[in-house]
């Protein structure tokens, strides 16, 4: 069948027949091995079909050209600006569309269009950045779940800022293996906020208690994220916490009482503006002479200084081997030292500090109880298994071991 016969077919009254003709004409253009003149005629014909009033015809063109690297670019660009259900076919797959085309279509298109762009097998940082700024939750979920999307840390953070309240967006972000530590912290903060709002809205907790529970959960998660992190990632995390008002004295004290000195040093370096090496030297000075100056330079509350100093002194003893403690994250011995140091302060200055330390102690006691209970359960399980083994079998095993040893 010649190209001109295809053209006659495209003039049929039936939209279905015209769609068949459009599909056949597009395949002939792509795979028919046409000579230059016939190829030009075919390209002209499919371009003219863009004006067909029936979406069936334009959809047939989009389906034929969606995956084809040899598709005529002007036709594909026009299809990308068609109604969403047609545009999505080429926007989600076509290799002839440039980054500029994708950004333009996402900017003026509807959410199904952005969803199609977000699901492309490969996306540049530029396109990801545009979607992070304008896309809704559904498209951002698709983008976050796309392993071929080269999303920069700034774009990831922007996604959290705009739609971090959406649980599915958070889940998709947390599943990314390359998620930076500061972005993970931002997602965690959004999760804590959502949970707090939920329990307060249900009337299970007061607003004040809900805020405290969420803050303490967020702080535990923050230190869990920081533990074992690379130095640069830890710096970025601390900088994020400071920008968002989360680098509090309570968090730093928790880190110190949890023996997380790498985080503590990074926090003091960020607050004081001193180099990390200098901060480490001041913190670990066995005489403790440099700590007061470092503490004041960091701008932390004066009322908490005795607690910090006592906790640091206890930590140095552990580091020097004078005392050792294993078990839960928070050190009960260090907490007791800090509480003792605050005991002589006026009530107006000490009551909030003592209450905080008491909560830390209760948390440490619960963690310790969990560890002990788990150990006892493991021992009970082993004992139950041993009791179920026949005595004769145990005796036979013992004698075999003795013969081997002999």
Walk me through this protein's architecture:
With 406 residues, this protein is mainly alpha-helical. Helices cover 72% and strands 0% of the residues. The protein has helices at 3-9, 15-31, 36-48, 55-65, 73-80, 84-91, 99-108, 111-118, 125-134, 137-144, 153-163, 167-174, 181-201, 207-226, 231-243, 249-257, 261-272, 276-283, 291-298, 305-319, 332-342, 347-388, 391-405. Mean pLDDT is 84; it is low at 321-328.
Salient structural properties:
406 residues
Shape: elongated
Straight-line distance between termini: 93 Å
SSE string: HHHHHHHHHHHHHHHHHHHHHHH
> Roughly what percent helix?
over 70%
Question: Helical region count?
Answer: 23
Low-pLDDT residue spans: 321-328
pLDDT averaged over residues: 84
Alpha-beta content class: mainly alpha
Radius of gyration from CA coordinates:
33 Å
What fraction of the residues are assigned to beta strands by DSSP? under 5%
Question: Major sheet, described briefly?
Answer: none
DSSP E strands, number:
0
Oligomer: single chain
Topology:
Elements: H1 3-9, H2 15-31, H3 36-48, H4 55-65, H5 73-80, H6 84-91, H7 99-108, H8 111-118, H9 125-134, H10 137-144, H11 153-163, H12 167-174, H13 181-201, H14 207-226, H15 231-243, H16 249-257, H17 261-272, H18 276-283, H19 291-298, H20 305-319, H21 332-342, H22 347-388, H23 391-405
Helix pairs in contact: 1-2, 2-3, 2-4, 4-6, 6-8, 7-8, 7-9, 8-10, 9-11, 10-12, 11-13, 12-13, 13-14, 13-15, 15-17, 16-17, 17-18, 17-19, 20-21, 21-22
